[in-house]
Amino acid sequence: MDVPQAILLDIEGTTSSIAFVADVLFPYARAHLRDFVAAHGEAVAPILAEVPGDDPVATLLEWIDADRKATPLKTLQGMIWAQGYAEGVLEGHVYPDTPVALRRWRGAGIPVHIYSSGSIAAQKQLFGNSIAGDLRPLIAGYFDTTSGPKRESASYTAIAAALGLPPSALLFVSDVQAEVDAAHAAGLGAVLIARDGGGDVQSLDAVLP
Ligand SMILES: CSCCC(=O)C(=O)COP(=O)(O)O
Ligand SMILES: [Mg+2]
Questions:
Q1: Residue 39 Cα to ligand 2 middle (Å)
Q2: Where are its TM segments located (predicted)?
Q3: In 144-178, which positions are buried (b, 16+ CB within 10 angstroms) versus exposed (e)?
């Protein structure tokens, strides 16, 4: 691929560790879900209305355990995590190569966007409160499941259109083969990152070296 006009990055397993999401963020949301819903009835009512079942909180807890990437769950998780970041209990994990790559690509004039199943608000919280400081000035934009699921090629077509770029001008990086395949099917360049080896690259340093 030629030098891309923009880069699109996944979070979990790409900019940040799977363990941070699975072992820190998800349990934090799980532990605070019932109390948060009870304390923010009016604010969360429209979100709960999108969740099926007689006990939406029970459904949401099942979705957390099953790692469902459903938009209402992601919206609510983001609201709960915001509280944790504000209290200083949470700090967003990023690999050491993430800020280095973000700065390098910014210096090269290549805008970097995020595409994660986590809500856009949650993405901004993670990068705004990261262990490497506030990385938001290095990020040009954010996309979440409101652009569509990450394993469907139409989502990548929609993101390229939103950026005003032909799909082939975008380079997507993810640790999930099905997401890389979907991006390829939409005509994007796509790189599989596998932090433990076995992918196209093992770190963001190796993307566009
Ligand atoms: C905003 S960080 C939380 C990420 C998240 O909720 C998730 O499900 C991971 O999704 P990704 O698309 O980044 O693999
Ligand atoms: Mg991922």
A1: 31
A2: none
A3: bbebbebebbebbbbbbeebebebebbbbbbbbee
69-85 per-position pLDDT tens digit: 999 999 999 999 999 99
Q: Which ligand is nearest to the CA of 123?
A: 1
pLDDT of res. 209: 80
Q: Whose CA is nearest to atom 14 of ligand 1?
A: 12
Which ligand 1 atom minimizes the distance to the CA of 25? 3
CA dist 109 and 45 (Å) reads 42
Digit-coded pLDDT (tens) for 154-203: 999 999 999 999 999 999 999 999 999 999 999 999 999 999 999 999 99
Instruction: Give the distance (Å) from ligand 2 centre to CA of residue 66.
Output: 15
The reported pLDDT for the residue numbered 1 is 66
- What's this model's pTM, rounded to 2 decimal places? 0.96
Report the nearest-CA residue for atom 6 of ligand 1.
118
Domain count, the chain: 2
Amino acid in the structure at residue 30: R
Do 163 and 81 have their domain in common?
Answer: no
Shortest-distance atom of ligand 1 to CA 13: 14
Domain of 68 in residue numbering reads as 19-86
Distance (Å, rounded) from C-alpha 186 to C-alpha 167? 7
